[in-house]
Description:
By secondary structure, the chain is α/β, with parallel strands linked by helices. The chain folds into two domains: 8-210, Rossmann fold, CATH 3.40.50; 221-291, Helicase, Ruva Protein, domain 3 (Orthogonal Bundle). The protein is 40% helix and 18% strand. The strands form two sheets. It has a seven-stranded mixed beta sheet with strand order 4-3-2-5-6-9-7. The longest helix has 15 residues, at 277-291. The site of S-adenosylmethionine (SAM) has 23 residues, from strand 1, helix 3 and strand 3. S-adenosylmethionine (SAM) binds at residues 26-31, 55-58, 61-62, 76-79, 82, 102-104, 127, 129, 132.
Amino acid sequence: MHKDIATPVRTKEILDRHGFSFKKSLGQNFLIDPNILEKITGFAGLDKSAGAIEIGPGIGALTEHLARKAGKVVAFEIDQRLLPVLEDTLSPYDNVKVIHSDILEADVAEVIRREFSGLERVAVVANLPYYVTTPILMKLLEAKLPIDSLTVMMQNEVADRISARPSTKEYGSLSIAVQYYTEAEKVMMVPKTVFMPQPNVASAVVHLKMREHPPVQVENEEFLFKVARGSFVQRRKTILNNLQASMPDGKQHKEKIVAALTAAGVDPGRRGETLTLQEFGRLADSLYPVFG
Ligand code: SAM
């Protein structure tokens, strides 16, 4: 086995050799601890029958651990300056493909079809750029890709919101959107000291297991998320108040909103943060004929 990229000494040596300087605006905080990488790839449950998709390989710290465990790795990197670095650091591995692309612009479904035929399943594993965590996750989830799970490092505060249960202060429209598609669990807190440079915020790893079927059947998914977002606009207000403020011409439709809440079995005096995903599902369906 080759010496790990993810040690402070080797990382510094690679950065110096290529004259690389970090771009804060791209969320470049590289991992320098092989133990953390072993844990992350362990949570992802990879073996040689699996393909791995990585977002933002950096200098390849996580990529090489994925290459050792998975059948094939495809990594999307936005920063062109890292391409020659990755060609160098990942040269011992013949099962890695780096694609120079913004993940938000990429046709990931097409890449999966093209690159992972013959493999049994696909997992996403990444130390995400924190400035775009939510857009990246929502893009991958909404695309309904043929993937099993996502094991992703992110800002701890976002990890808490994603995995939050009803009636907690972290619970909100992001919890609902992510938990609609996945079973979400925060699996590990990660100290700042394992990054170079160290980020300003605490980090955590979240494991998102894709659901085979959504936990609630709704007329229209987009409308469910709209209702959820609208129910949390002012957290301290009742759901009735929030829906009146967020639905089109909601003020004029108070009676209809009360009727929809009642039909869904939700007391109009409750706060959005107390509703389960099932309750939001019922509510979305009874509001849909009025506002959909
Ligand atoms: N995986 C490496 C590691 O753990 O050491 C680097 C992780 S670093 C937190 C995030 C990486 O994502 C950087 O390499 C950055 O250039 C890349 N990146 C930032 N925005 C991106 C985007 N929109 N699409 C693809 N890669 C992106």
